[in-house]
Design a protein that fits this description.
Blueprint: H1 3-7, H2 16-22, H3 26-50, H4 55-81, H5 93-99, H6 108-136, H7 140-166, H8 173-188
Helix pairs in contact: 3-4, 4-7, 6-7, 6-8
């Protein structure tokens, strides 16, 4: 998978993030990952609550919630199997910075499209991080696990992009996505140093 062609991310994660940061604190990365899955489920629930009239979106988000919480449980199972305990939720500064790019005000339609693209961006970066993890971590169980989840996140990414285009109305989704990608490239320059999925 090429991030440039499929995900269109402009700045790849340095593989040394895995060897220098992640491998020294597996417990920390697993806790952060578990909460990333929980937050993804919460985001999908929010989209349902805010858009109950969009039946196709409600159906797809309901399935996504189930899948994200299944991933949460699977990460938690790994945490328990390794003798760890789920820690407290970690603040996700990366996601906080992405939120700043969302339009303030505007029509309900514009807010929906921005929220879908915001979700797509997080899924795209998570997918890219899982790919780097699967290819570089010196842990066979986690390498296989993250390879599987990489494929899942790519599917989620395309779901959000497809829904954004379907419900765009007159909004130019492509140009907004291009602007979002450029913004994310600036944001991600400051990350890749912490033992969190987006850190």
């Amino acid at each position: 998978m090429s991030e440039k062609t499929i995900l269109k991310l402009q700045l790849p994660t340095d593989p040394r993030w895995v060897t220098n940061v992640v491998e020294s604190n597996i417990e920390e990365i697993l806790t952060d990952h578990a909460f990333c899955e929980q937050k993804a489920a919460s985001n999908a629930i929010t989209l349902i609550v805010q858009n109950p009239d969009l039946s196709d979106l409600v159906q797809e988000m309901a399935l996504l919630v189930q899948e994200e919480m299944d991933h949460f449980k699977r990460v938690h199972d790994i945490i328990l199997a390794r003798g760890y305990v789920l820690g407290r939720e970690r603040k996700d500064d990366y996601v906080g910075e992405l939120l700043k790019f969302l339009k303030k005000g505007g029509s309900r339609k514009e807010q929906l499209i921005d929220r879908l693209l915001f979700a797509a961006m997080i899924e795209a970066r998570s997918c890219e991080r899982f790919k780097v993890l699967s290819e570089n971590i010196n842990d066979d169980e986690l390498a296989a696990f993250y390879h599987e989840l990489m494929i899942s996140e790519a599917t989620h990414y395309t779901t959000f992009i497809r829904l954004a285009k379907k419900h765009a109305g007159g909004i130019d989704v492509e140009s907004r996505w291009t602007a979002f990608l450029a913004y994310e490239a600036q944001v991600i320059q400051n990350y890749g140093k912490k033992e969190t999925i987006h850190g």
